[in-house]
Every structure is written in structure tokens, then in C-alpha cells.
Design a protein that fits this description.
CATH architecture: 4-Layer Sandwich
Helix content: 25-40%
CATH class: Alpha Beta
CATH topology: Nitrilase/N-carbamoyl-D-aminoacid amidohydrolase
């Protein structure tokens, strides 16, 4: 048995209000990752536009498209040309009045291989996603690629151990989380450090509990509110975690970056054998996880 390795590329970018410019930048940065040897490249959440969920505005529905559709067509050509797997986050229009926050997987010569629809939809100040997105109905997924089995989850999904677990149980060796998360400037001084730390710790724990690699891909830069009062300072710091929970790579908070790292997939088997969480799971005792709260 030869060593199983895969080189992954993360694109951390700033987004402007010019969708064409954002798309061109994402393509250029994906090319840069591939030139550095990346075989699987992940773009940040909803990279085509500024993060539009900061307000509830019906005009933003015009930004959506079908998946597969115009963007996946261009990105599939790019993936084929570069012979990479590309994970791309898009605003999906499924039908009139029905929209999802969706990831498409484009795989080299195979083209479009499928999609995952974000399952956990937040509703918080400046993250009004429930206005736009219907919760996903495709379940938790793992996609086979020539290089690794990849689970695709999206942003708010990254806080849920159930999501990571179910993707790993489907065979995912690397969990990719396209993300748009940041600080509200008025909270940053008091809560900023603990908010960021919680985000990172949670995902490092998913890597350990599931014996897999975690790849979180965030945007960076400040995006103002439509009315100009406040906004979100996206905190970048995209990162890769190994199965033992250690950080393999981390991007800066306030700059664009292309991170490329080679991951040793043989470590998964070694780690899971020495820390046999899958062996010792009590699947006979977990039925109550499907209850909202155990209050009887």
C-alpha cells in the first residue's frame, strides 16, 4: 500500500459589490492554488457577492441562480482545465420563492458531481439567513473524488457535532466548511477574542472526535451595512486541522491568502485505531438525539 496524500488549497478573499470582479478573483486564486499543487480547492461561502444577509431585502433574491447553472458551468471548465476538484458555494434558486445556500462540487474531467444544501440556517443580528434560505433537504454528504472523500458543510453547520459526525460516518476524510464569519465592530473589543476562539476550538474538536481533517475557508475584510451604519469585519483566519486537533495551517485575519497544504490520509487510520471513538460509540443509546429537548 502506497502512502495516500492529498494537497488541498484554500482561497481566502475579500468580496466587493461587483459580482463579476469577485468571480474573476476567485478563479485567479483557484488557479494560484492549483499552480502550487492543490488537488482540491475550496472557495469561501457565497464568494460571488458581498455577504448580503446583513439585511432582509427582496432585491437580493435576484443574485440567486440554478445549481447546476451558469456559475457551475464556468467552474466545471476551470476544474477540468486544472484537473482539480473545486468546492464552490452558491446562492441557489431552486424554484420561484424557494432558495438554498448550496455548495457545488466540480471534479476535474467528471464535471459537476453534485451539491450539498446548508442544513443549519442562522438568524442573528446581521446574519438574517432564514429570510433567504430554506434548510437543506439532501442530508449530510460525502463526495468521492480521485484524491479523497470530502464532506461539504457550510458556515453555521460548523458548530454542530452531529453534522460533522454524520458526514464522517458517510466516509468523509476531510470536512470542508466554506464560511462567512466575522466580528460586529461594536462587540469586538469585549467579545472578539472569545468568539474567534470558540469558532476554532469547536472545529478542532470535530477533527478529533471524527478522526478527520477539517478545512474552514472564510472571507476577510470589512463589509458595511447597506445603510452605512455598522457592518461585519470578517475575521479571515481560514485554517486546516489534523485528526489530532492540531492546526496545520492558518491564514491571517486581515489579508487575502491562498493556503496550500499536503495532508497525509494514512494518519486517519492510525489516529482512529489509537483513539477508537467509532469502535466505542453506543449507537443503541443515542436515539434521544432526534428529540428537540428531553424534558419529560
Amino acid at each position: 500500500m502506497g502512502m495516500r496524500r492529498v494537497t488541498v488549497g484554500l482561497v481566502q478573499m475579500r468580496c466587493t459589490d461587483d459580482a463579476a470582479q469577485n468571480f474573476e478573483k476567485a478563479v485567479a486564486m483557484a488557479r494560484e492554488a492549483a499552480a502550487q499543487g492543490a488537488q482540491i480547492v475550496c472557495l469561501p461561502e457565497l464568494f460571488r457577492t458581498r455577504y448580503f444577509c446583513k439585511s432582509e431585502d427582496h432585491a437580493h433574491f435576484k443574485l440567486a441562480e440554478s445549481v447546476p447553472g451558469p456559475s457551475t458551468e464556468i467552474l466545471a471548465e476551470l476544474a477540468a482545465e486544472l484537473d482539480i476538484t473545486l468546492i464552490a458555494s452558491l446562492f441557489e434558486k431552486r424554484a420561484e420563492g424557494l432558495y438554498h445556500n448550496t455548495v457545488a462540487v466540480l471534479d476535474g474531467p467528471r464535471g459537476y458531481v453534485g451539491k450539498y444544501r446548508k442544513m443549519h440556517i442562522p438568524d442573528d443580528p446581521l446574519y438574517y439567513e432564514k429570510f433567504y434560505f430554506t434548510p437543506g433537504d439532501l442530508g449530510f454528504k460525502s463526495f468521492e473524488t480521485p484524491h479523497a472523500n470530502v464532506g461539504t458543510l457550510i458556515c453555521w453547520d460548523q458548530w454542530y457535532p452531529e453534522a460533522a459526525r454524520l458526514a464522517a460516518l458517510r466516509g468523509a476524510e476531510i470536512l470542508f466548511y466554506p464560511t462567512a464569519i466575522g466580528w460586529l465592530p461594536e462587540e469586538k473589543a469585549q467579545h472578539g477574542a472569545s468568539q474567534h476562539s470558540a469558532w476554532e476550538i469547536t472545529q478542532r474538536a470535530h477533527a478529533v472526535a471524527n478522526g478527520c481533517y477539517i478545512v474552514a475557508v472564510n472571507r476577510t475584510g470589512f463589509e458595511p451595512e447597506p445603510e452605512g451604519a455598522g457592518g461585519i469585519e470578517f475575521w479571515g483566519q481560514s485554517f486546516i486541522v489534523a485528526p489530532d486537533g492540531q492546526l496545520v495551517a492558518k491564514a491571517p485575519a486581515d489579508a487575502e491568502a491562498v493556503l496550500v497544504e499536503t495532508l497525509d490520509l494514512d494518519r486517519l487510520d492510525a489516529f482512529r485505531t489509537e483513539w477508537p471513538f467509532f469502535r466505542d460509540r453506543r449507537i443503541d443509546a443515542y436515539a434521544d438525539l432526534t428529540r428537540r429537548f428531553i424534558d419529560d
